[in-house]
Write a structure and sequence with these properties.
Layout (H helix, E strand, L loop, with lengths): L1 H16 L23 E6 L4 E8 L2 E6 L4 E6 L4 H5 L4 E4 L8 E8 L5 E10 L4 E4 L5 E4 L1
Antiparallel strand pairs: 1-2, 2-3, 3-4, 5-6, 6-7, 7-8, 7-9
């Protein structure tokens, strides 16, 4: 029973203590042109619907851009995490088995980096944007 309580405390602290993440909600696509960094990660969101996207970090913000669309801001991050955890910063999975891969973004790590916690963003087919679902936030040991 201690693990769920500790996980709840860690999630609360990560969310409350990271000023980059406060009041961040999916926004309409940005109209300004953004140069995608060379370390951007191409993702397959849905083979059925032919949806591909590129996810990347720029100025402490996670951005996602579907092919042929404007970039969308997903979330702010703790910039100190990205250099050390770049290889595991993004995860792609279809946990809810709806045929659309979700994008999981590293939100924080435990002391000693024994656990990694991820925010999860689902693709909304009707609106054409990614949306955070707080109930899907999870932590995993590596």
């Amino acid at each position: 029973m201690k693990t769920p309580l500790m996980l709840s405390i860690v999630v609360t602290l990560l969310t409350a203590c990271n000023p980059a993440k406060r009041d961040v909600v999916p926004q309409s696509p940005l109209s300004a042109a953004i140069t995608i960094p060379s370390d951007a990660k191409p993702l397959l969101i849905s083979e059925k619907y032919q949806i591909r996207a590129t996810v990347y970090v720029i100025d402490g913000v996670v951005m996602v851009q579907k092919q042929g669309a404007d970039a969308q801001r997903l979330t702010g991050i703790n910039p100190a995490l990205y250099p050390d955890f770049q290889k595991v910063f993004f995860r792609v999975q279809d946990k809810n088995r709806d045929g659309l891969n979700e994008i999981a973004v590293l939100a924080g790590t435990s002391f000693g980096a024994t656990e990694r916690c991820y925010d999860v963003f689902h693709y909304n087919l009707k609106q054409g944007i990614f949306e955070r679902r707080w109930e899907d936030f999870y932590c995993t040991s590596h």
